[in-house]
Amino acid sequence: MAVNSDLYLTTKELADLLRVKERKVYELAAAADVPFTRVTGKLLFPRHLIEAWLARHTEVSGDLTALPDPPPVAAGSQDPLLDWALRESRCGIATFFDGSLDGIERLARREALFCGMHIAEPADGGDERGWNAARVATRFPMMPVVLTEWAWRERGLIVAPDNPLGIETVADLKGRRFVPRQAKAGAQHLFHDLLSEADVPESALTLEAAARTEHDVAITVLNGRADAGLGIASVAREYRLGFVPLLRERFDILVWRRSWFEGPFQALVAFCQTPAFRDKAEELGGYDVSGFGTVHYNGP
Asked: Please, what is the end-to-end C-alpha distance for the chain in angstroms?
């Protein structure tokens, strides 16, 4: 069984982190006082559970908080409506969008105030996809984060105007030039799921250079460097390209609970409750913002 060293700490690494002897780590594990797993007799410590364990055991004194306040930065997945709202609200939040999974890790390291994300996952007890909540619960156990709905978006295949190649399904991508996304993008993980469901091996497609944003996907198709890419309806509409709808996805915002009540995030939330925000969503197309602000996960 191969183990990703980025996800697990060894006994020695945890001892170094805690500045104790390895014997103490074994004692903590034997008493079940620290989260661990055992593989072929060897103790391994899931990094994200150790981070949560340390946070829960941090003592607070006076006016100090257990963890530092993150900078006013939005990380995670890029979304055109979110980009626009951040500018128009004048909330003072900068952006560093490089994919849903990248944003989650930046949030965990307190490098971002919030993370935009759209990660598909199986729903409990059914075949319909779920979105984001299970990943958050796993990555941020017992941590004060809130997952709130931004919008539902139409997701599908961006193709040339009038779809001259007649691409209607994922199966039709066989033999076509396709523009993928970067490895940590939620769209790329969804793309792999869709290929698997359609029983289409990735090798059946000709993959072009990865695009880092929704707009980069559209530009690649517009310039004729790819036949199709996975994108959202609003971007296809902006570039007057063809669009083959495949599903609706929920785009959420993950934020530290403390940051929720700070000025920059509150300024963004207040702006998104105005008619101007709803009008812009309708203008862009492919958005449903009726559930904006719905809480889908609330950590302890």
From this structure: 33
